[in-house]
Amino acid sequence: MKDKVTAALLAFFLGSIGVHRFYLGQTGIGFLCLIFCWTLIPALIAFIDFIIFLTMSQQSFDLKYNRAYLPNQVAHPYGSIVPVPQKDKIAEIERLHNLRERGILTDAEFEEAKKRLL
């Protein structure tokens, strides 16, 4: 599970070469930072990332970067993570199905949320 403070420190000290992006599993962006580190643009972006990581709530950080480690929890569109009781799983799957039918969720997002519920 990735840590918010570790990501912030990596962004501050080694962000100009994209180490924090590799740590967060964003290897494509990490390689871009590594390739363009001579322009100092990745350093500026890393400093902004550093500030964002420090001001971001732990819940938001987990929702964005630790989704694979959050079993039996459904991520809602407004950023909150709500544990789903066993008896409400069917109702939650129906709600997700309605969101998919309206085009708010993609098929992949629906299947991922359904797997987390079951």
TrEMBL record:
This is NINE protein. The chain crosses the membrane at residues 28-54. Keywords: Membrane, Transmembrane, Transmembrane helix. It is a multi-pass membrane protein. Residues 91-118 form the SHOCT domain. InterPro entries: SHOCT (IPR018649), TM2 (IPR007829). It is found in: Membrane. Residues 2-51 form the TM2 domain.
